[in-house]
Amino acid sequence: MEGNSMRDPENPVAGTRLPRDFVWGVSTSSYQIEGAAQDDGRRPSIWDLYSKVPGHVANGDTGDIACDHYHRYREDIGLMHRIGVGAYRFSVAWPRVLPDGRGISNEAGLGFYDRLIDGLLAVGIEPWLCLYHWDLPQALQEEGGWQNRAIVDWYAAYAALVAKRYGDRVRHFVTFNEPSVFSLFGYGLAWHPPGKKDPAALHQAIHHINLAHGAGVDAIRAEVPRALIGCIHNVQPARPLGSSPEDAAAARVLDAYWNRVFPEPQVLGHYPEPLAKLIEPYIQAGDLDRIRRPIDWFGVNHYSPIFARADVDAALGFAWADAPPTVRRSPIGWQLDPEAFRDLLVEVSRRYGLPVYVTENGAGANEAPDKSGQVLDHERISYLKAYIGALREAVGMGANVHGYFVWSLLDNFEWGAGYANRFGLVYVDYPTQRRIPKESAHWYARLINSEAMREVS
């Protein structure tokens, strides 16, 4: 254990007072929970095909059924209402509303999100709508996906459709969730679709995703002038695995790909070194202005630090490394370090000058109900206490943080790990689809209620 990095404060709401408009919420994403993969006109996403290739996902799991949220969304809204969250971040499945990625929209798919949004508003939960959480329509992938510059216009048209349809009820819009993850894993490390290890393809995709972000901001703003728009970045300190200068250099490269290659052009108007020269061949006149569009807030997803090591054969200048055994780790092997979370919130707030919302934070495990039917996930509660305590410390140090969303409301399809890793506040028994609120759900409900009582006192 490093220092007191997993202190477990008895009362994480004690100490620095959070902003009066602070939002407590939960997050999910479409492919991870919706299921109904072939219902009501939805066509395949890249994850539908990728997950069916043997070896891509643990246990051969797919998102075909997932949590069946498409049919059980009313029950899931009821769970959120009982927990007491003020906001719910979800994503729209692009291939559900535009089955071919562009062209004719699908009224049945659009209607599902109408019902979801209306159900949330009916119980006082604010919808936070994310346009893209990794489920690119397969039809667009077959036309080049993020390597095709035309996707900027396809994405802008999709953003305009969604904003026009829901902008009368949705105020908070997200252009992308974790672009660094789906670009690096998809085009650089071959861990996600489209499964490439091609530095040139990665740099091309990065630039087109950034252009799509800017085009999406403009499209949303044109349809919903009052919209509050942000992009969500997975911000995690990139640390060298060892003490060598080579490992330190590898960590700097990973930091550029993971933490800076999207927010810096989007907010500051330039690509970071050492990647700027690599992306330059794909930049056309005026592109950086098209990317740097005014946004209203900065989304941070964070779980733990990440590690890099030197490897002379690594095409990208670093090799990914697991957390060393000398640090305290979660049940799924990720380092536990709330101080890193505290410090990055201060740094992000200072560097980008925007209100910050923590849009994902949580702990993965593989728990099950006990003999009494309860799920006593004490490790997750300890994690949440420590990290929310660190958030409060960051606010006391000047971080401009206005919200916190737990990942996730439900256990769900966790990409390459399939259903082996459970992050939910609510346990899902996949064969029956029964939902069981874990002890962490009850704890989070008490926290939210305590914070509400504090604000009125």
From TrEMBL:
Q: Give me the reactions it catalyses.
A: Hydrolysis of terminal, non-reducing beta-D-glucosyl residues with release of beta-D-glucose
State the top-level EC class: hydrolase
**Gene Ontology terms describing biological process:** cellulose catabolic process
Instruction: Detail which positions bind substrate.
Output: 32, 133, 177, 303, 407, 414-415
What is this enzyme's EC?
Answer: 3.2.1.21
Which keywords fit this entry according to its UniProt record? Carbohydrate metabolism, Cellulose degradation, Glycosidase, Hydrolase, Polysaccharide degradation
Name the residues annotated as catalytic in the UniProt entry.
178, 360
Q: Which terms does the record give in the GO molecular function aspect?
A: beta-glucosidase activity
What Gene Ontology cellular component terms go with this record? cytosol
Among its keywords, does the record have Hydrolase?
A: yes
Family per similarity comment: Belongs to the glycosyl hydrolase 1 family.
Q: Which PANTHER family match?
A: GLYCOSYL HYDROLASE, LP05116P
- Please give the name of this protein: Beta-glucosidase
